[in-house]
Amino acid sequence: MSSPVRHTDYRESAPGQGIRIRNLNKSFGKKHVLRDITVDFAPDRVHGLLGANGVGKTTLMSVILNHTFRSSGEVLIDGEDPRENARLLERTCFVHEDQKFHDDDTPASLLRILPTFYPTWDTDLAERLAPRFKLPMSTRTTKLSRGQRSALAIVISLAARAPYTFMDEPYLGLDPGHRALFYEEFARAMAEHPRTVILSTHLIDEVSDLLENVVMIEDGRVTVDADIDDARDSAFVLRGLEPVVRDVVGARRVLREYRLGNILSVTVDGTATAEDRRRADAANVSLEPVTLQELVAARGMRGTDDAEMSV
C-alpha cells in the first residue's frame, strides 16, 4: 500500500464553525418529512441524532450534505452553503447502513484511492483498522457480507478524518464484538483528532457514552436539542404498584407508561424535583433516571416515512 498521504490539517488552519440550520423544510410530494427544522451542530462534538423509525433522521443528514434537495430553509457548513461547493465536499464524509460501492471495488482498492478525495486521510489508521475488522482486502465489495460492508464503511469514516462526519447506523451489520471494537476505535479517533460527528442510531444505550449532545426528532420536528446530561434530566421513570405510582405522578405530564404484571412504569416529563423524590420514597415507588433509549421511546413513537428517500 502507498505511503501515508499528508495534507493540511484543516482543524489547525481553519477551525470549523459547525453546522447551522434555519427553518428547514423537506417534502416528498404531499408528505412533509422535515418541518421547520432550526438547530445548530457545534464543531468538534459528537451529536446523537435520535428518533423513531421514519421521523426524518436520514433525510436531514442527506439534505445537510445536499444529497437531497431541500424544499426551503437554510443550511450552512462552516458558514457556507453546501450546494455545489467542492471545498465542503472534501470536508465531509457520509457512511450509512446500506453503503454502496462500485462493483469492481475491493477494500484494498478503495483504501488506495480514497486519500485523493480526503485531504485529512490517515493511511496509517486505515492500515491498522482493516485487519482489526478482519476485512478481506482482495474481495469485491459485491461479495462482501453485510457485516463486512459495515466494517469497511467504518474504516473509511474513521480514516477519512473528515471535519464533518455523518454516520447513519453503518454498524448495524456488525456482531456485538465488532460493534464494541467500533466504539473503542471511535472514542480513540475523537480523542486524537476531534471532528464534528452526527451519529444516527437505534442502539441508543450502546452508544450513549460516546455522545456529547442529543438532537431528537419527532414527526419531522426537533423536540430535544440538549447536552447529553441535560437530555437525561429532561424526564424520569417512576416504577411500582399502579395506584401509588399514579398518586405520585399527580398532575405531571406522562410521556409513556407500560405494565409488567402488577407493576406500572411511567415516564414523566420534566426534571425530578426533591419533592418528587420525597413522595416516591414515602410511597415505596422507585424513581429512576430515564435512559436515552427510554426517552426516545417515550417522545418519538410517530414518524414520517424515510423510505421515500434514496440516499
Automatic annotation (TrEMBL):
Q: Which CDD domains match?
A: ABC_DR_subfamily_A
Q: Answer whether the UniProt record assigns the keyword ATP-binding to this protein.
A: yes
**PROSITE patterns in the record, alphabetically?**
ABC_TRANSPORTER_2
Coiled-coil region(s): none
Q: Name one Pfam family in it.
A: ABC_tran
Gene3D superfamilies reported in the protein's UniProt record: P-loop containing nucleotide triphosphate hydrolases (3.40.50.300)
Q: Where is the ABC transporter domain?
A: 19-244
Its keywords, alphabetically, are: ATP-binding, Nucleotide-binding
Signal peptide region: none
Q: MF terms per GO, please?
A: ATP binding; ATP hydrolysis activity
UniProt key word Nucleotide-binding:
yes
- Name this polypeptide is given: ABC transporter ATP-binding protein
